[in-house]
Amino acid sequence: MKRLFRKNSDSKYILLLLLISLLSFSDLLFHPMKWDMIDYFLPMRRLIGETLRSGNLPLWNPYIMLGQPIYADPQSGAWYPIAWILGSIFGYNIFTISFEYVLHVFLAGLGVYLLLKTLNFERKIAFTMGVAYMLSGFFVGNGQHLSWIIAGTWLPFVISSYLKLYLKINIENSLKFSFFVALIFSGGYPAVGFILFYILLISSIFLIIRRLRNREKKEVRKHIKFISISMAIILPILAIFFVSNIEILPHVTRASSLTKESALTGHFHPKGLLSLIAPLSVHIPNTWDVFGTDLSMINAYFGLIVLIFAIVALLKIKDKKVYYLFVLALLFILTAMGVYTGIRGFLFDYIPLMNYFRFPSIFRLFFILFMVIISAYGLQYFKEKNSNKLLIILSSAIALAITGTIVFFRSYTYLNLLDTAKNGIFKYNENIFLEQAFSFNALFQLTILLLLILVLIFIKNRKLGFNLTIFIIIAELFISTKLTSPYTVYDEFMSAAESKNYLNSFEKKFSLPNGEAIALQTEIMKKQTPFWRNLTMYNHQVSNSGFTPFVLGEHRELNDNFTDFRDSIIQNSVVYIPEKVYPNSLFKNSYEKGEISSKDAFFNVSDIFENSASVEFQILKFTPNKIEIVYNASSDAYLILQQHNYPHWRAKIDDKTVPLEQANIFFMGIKLPSNSHKVVFEFKPKLAKTAFYISAFSWILIVLLLLFLRLKKAKMLN
User: Fold this and answer.
1) How confident is the model over 384-436, as pLDDT tens digits?
2) Residues near 250 by Cβ (< 8 Å), separated by ≥ 6?
3) Which of 74, 205, 309, 605 has the fewest Cβ atoms within 10 Å of its own Cβ atom?
């Protein structure tokens, strides 16, 4: 224990980061998370876990939008190691998804801690800024967006490992860099990976030029060599990432560039800068009316006192790195503002990959990270120079500015702060508005600033004053997190235990179709708040609807251009025998005339087929990747499986491969020979499965190599 908490130990700071993250989000023990976390990430993760525990790979999701390849959905977590570990060992429920969120919050703080240590900051400063990052407005404001949280978590690890590789070029640092890059791309929001690619590319060019100017040609060659090695390591780790993206391009609605209007949705409104002082001011119910954007997109908070230390650094630190970081931070927050600055539009028009994602607000993640690093320089200056005067002046000036703002708001609106304190402290308040939210939150901030000023004036012991300052910083961040998280992280009106019981009411084994029409599946579901989307993934029934950013082009076309036809065919169950089969060539004319019956079907046949056969069938198995059916037919007939006819589906009758027909334009069907037989539909994307195994083997190999090098280094040190 003494060794764990020795003076120069990382362990105590890591444990403190863990403790703070757990306490900050302790409400998740009692309440479920909200919105996309429940609507999208939980059902996707749950299905992935169920598939893995059944001994299969998560390749196909049959339950929403009439089937789609889950392995090709970059935000599903189908090839993210942590999702695999949690899903296969524990399975996903309300508490598992909350645990994954808090785990990443903690790891984000750890990432900044390690990054600042790489930049030679002392542990206490690195720890403080780790707390500022992990309790920032990005991790709280985007609590519902797990893929954003994952990207934000691994971002500082990537930058830190890249700097280590630059400073000490060896295979271990190359492996670490590759490992963290792979984590961002395998689990994070793709846009962060695209932005990071350009940051690292420009940084590499800059650093190589600097070394060439210093006549360090040997170091340049080594740097290029190990960056190349890193890329060679990343390729097999992300084999499934590359294969799935290549395979899905012709089939997904996001394959082509977005429109500029779409890419500019989800911006960071300039008024969101109020969150730097009082984050509650942007956590209000009528966000769209006030900011014209989503609630999750407008929180850029990273601590008011931390912001003051950033100002100290900019005023006092004569280091080009600080100014470079500030210019980058400023550029990123302006880009996050979308239509208000035009920078995001420029990137959309002229920079490759920048036209494939929405939500300009994602750029504020980089703003927050760079400002936190700048603040570390300010905190270091404060400790080393022991100069309180500037800090007192800045704190007093901001306190006066906050007071003036409250007075200004009070001059034209009624601020019932006492009522807010009674009904809105640390809980959701549906009646709060911007001026009231700012003023209420600002009173906390004024108290914090007053405490800081008192410490700076009256505490003469240098060490004690520094430690108290850090304590006040963490207290401010903790209070702000507790104030805002009911709005964007958890649903305080719901019980986590009741939500877990609701999920437990569904079988974890894959159920057979209930025989009801697809159109009825969402209606017959037992519903319970906060669950209201993708519910058919829980009871393993097929639905035409679904909530996901990943949509097959075929499904979009079916819903947008053939609405009446869609409404007709989903009156059938997922597997059915049509009464009459028409050639595909007659579809357009029949649809335009409105002559298609729900019992009609369209196949690649030469003439109209009247089904006079008596057909009885039974579904023996219905799992994501495999469907087995036995039937008895008095004569030849046709069978339709209402799953999208995506490549890599195969069909067999009595273990003999048979042609898989395109049925009803978008789906699958086969011709059934008479008598009794067994039909098997199986999703077998051979290249994707191979890529899965290559990626899995590469993950295991890189972890073993890093452990080996770590043990070898420890042995040498001992």
Assistant:
1) 987 799 999 999 999 999 999 999 999 999 898 888 887 778 889 888 999 99
2) 553
3) 205
